[in-house]
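agent> Task received from the user: take the single chain below, predict its 3D structure, and emit structure tokens. No templates, no multimer pairing.
agent> Plan: (1) validate residues, (2) run structure prediction, (3) serialize to tokens, (4) report one or two observations.
agent> Step 1 OK, no nonstandard residues flagged.
tool_call: predict_structure(input=
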Amino acid sequence: MGFAHNNVLHDNHFRKDWQRRVRTWFDQPGRKLRRRRARQTKAATLGVRPLKPLRPAVRAQTVRYNTKIREGRGFTLAELKEAGIGKKEARGVGIVVDHRRRNLSEEGKKLNVDRLTAYKAKLIVFPRKAGKPKQGDSTGDDLTSATTRSSLPLPAGTVHEAPRKITAEERDFEAYHTLRESRAEARYEGKRKLRAAKKAEEEANKKK
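)
tool_result: status=success, residues=208
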């Protein structure tokens, strides 16, 4: 309800039967406690398993946020293949797989392959039966070594360059002119190729 200008104030009606229309939630503290106990029970049943599954490091969208690195949905099949991990095996050891995602750059792919390799090096897979370890299970001293439930930290985003003086070469460089030239070259490349091929063909016909 807005008030503007020097008008008469509204004759408001606040004596409605509002008690019937109010929703209360007195169970909030109880729910909070119940959720906390459920989390503790779940953490106890998980044992030494990581608290969160491993997800890839991806760039945030748009020019405004692409200097920031965040967690993606899942690792691509190409990243898993390069790290030497099968897609079924990955799901069993706490690695999320996204078959729809594609790698658009070698740098991003390498970043996630290194992330998988680091996780694989720290990974301890306890056998279901202590006396009968299966293929891929940890054995020996690995089973008694110290464990951590914290996930791998995300790598740092774009490292900004320290302030410095502008060089003479940078001062003389014409960025706008260079961009326009490269854009024009890309635009007319096809036409120029056709023209050159046609000219070469005409010259070949003249010699005959």
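agent> Step 4: summary for the user.
The CA atoms of residues 133 and 140 lie 11 Å apart.
agent> Done.
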